[in-house]
Each structure stands twice: as structure tokens, then as C-alpha cells.
Amino acid sequence: MFSPEGPSLRELAVQALSSVERGYDLLAPKFDHTPFRTSDTVLDAVGAALERTGPFGAGLDLCCGTGAGTDVLARACRDSVTGVDFSAGMLAVARERPRPAGPPVSWVRADVRALPFGPAFDLVVSFGAFGHFLPRELPGLFAQVHSVLRPGGCFAFPLVAPPRPGSLGYWMLLGFDAVMRVRNAVWRPPFVMYYRTFRLGDVRRELTRAGFRVELWALPEFGWREDGSPRVRLVVARR
């Protein structure tokens, strides 16, 4: 499915009926051949924006998966890069990926809701992972990120503008979230993955409550909506 190297429909069904951790362990060998991996276009745009802001010292990729985001950190950080994820399968693939030149990279298996670090990082990034957290979990998650950043450190992640109500994209995301809610109501263990629960207003409020100063940068590579707002923003939260 998606490409000859990607998962089959049966494999995706097995993943969807597993826990989040087990599902990603199963998907890991083929994850980079699915649309679920953050596109190189987004990674390059974020990397360019952070390079203009940096350089930074130590970087952390939150929910790093197979490690594509650590390449962004390698462009912006001088000292070290760390990827953290709770899927052993995804980390195994990340360890085998070719690495660009840059600072040393290490991999840590951990739940990002209980990060095993002190304030050791100057930059934290994350790509495409926030749908795995329910809205009530955001305060704790952002508090964890705040706790591992050094004073003046930066937490950055891209955020795509929601599709216009009534558009095809709107109905597709609405339908996906509805299917996931039904699945989680009738099947255990739950698989938390929602596309419409990570809203800019809520995110900005919870980041501020966690002690961040929040900035929103347009990523001009993706253009502008009819109302003049950017299609994709980079949320930059500073400790």
C-alpha cells in the first residue's frame, strides 16, 4: 500500500488493532515508505528556519521515530543530537539509517511523558507526533519539554493550518478521527491518533502555562491561505 515498499492493507489493519507502541514496532521497517513520515519538504523548511536562528548546542528530537527529524537537528546543532521514542522497532530503524555529517547522534527509548533527562538541551523539535496525545495530556507533555531545556532553550515544531470547513481535506480528517473514536470505544488496547485535537489556540495557551514564550513563524515555502494566513507555521516556544 502507498508504494511497492510500503505496508500492505493487512499489515496496516494489524497495526491499527494493536497498541500505539506495538503498532509502530510492526510498522517500523516500512514506515519511511508511508505518508505518515513527515515529508522532506517540511523537514527542509524547518531546518532552514532553525539554521537561520542558531546555531544551537545540544538538540533533542521528541518522538523521533525512524530519525528523519534528527537530520534537521544535525543542521542546527553543534554539540550533540538525541532521538527519543518509545518504539524499539522505530529506534532500531533509526540506528541503521545513513547519517549526514554533523554532531554525534544517540538514541534513547523512553516515554516522552516522563523524559529521563535533566535540563541538557538547547533545542527540542518534534514532527508529526502530537496526534498521539490527548488534549488533557498536553500540559504534562509541555512541562516535560520545559524541564529538559536549558534557560533560553527553544522548542520548535511545524503546525499545518486546518483545512477549510466543508473541503475534502476537512471531511477526510473528520472521518479519520471519527473512525478512530469508534475503534477505541470498542477495541482494546486503544490506538491514540487524532488529527483534529491539536489546535493552535489550545497549543499556544498550554505552552504559555508551561512557562514558554511563544512565537509563530510563517514557513513561506508553503504559501498562504485566502485569508492571508500561512498554510504552515513554525511554532517556536522559548524557555
TrEMBL record:
<keyword id="KW-0808">Transferase</keyword>
<feature type="domain" description="Methyltransferase">
    <location>
        <begin position="60"/>
        <end position="153"/>
    </location>
</feature>
<keyword id="KW-0489">Methyltransferase</keyword>
<dbReference type="Pfam" id="PF13649">
    <property type="entry name" value="Methyltransf_25"/>
</dbReference>
<dbReference type="GO" id="GO:0008168">
    <property type="term" value="F:methyltransferase activity"/>
</dbReference>
<dbReference type="InterPro" id="IPR029063">
    <property type="entry name" value="SAM-dependent_MTases_sf"/>
</dbReference>
<dbReference type="GO" id="GO:0032259">
    <property type="term" value="P:methylation"/>
</dbReference>
<protein>
    <submittedName>
        <fullName>Class I SAM-dependent methyltransferase</fullName>
        <ecNumber>2.1.-.-</ecNumber>
    </submittedName>
</protein>
<dbReference type="InterPro" id="IPR041698">
    <property type="entry name" value="Methyltransf_25"/>
</dbReference>
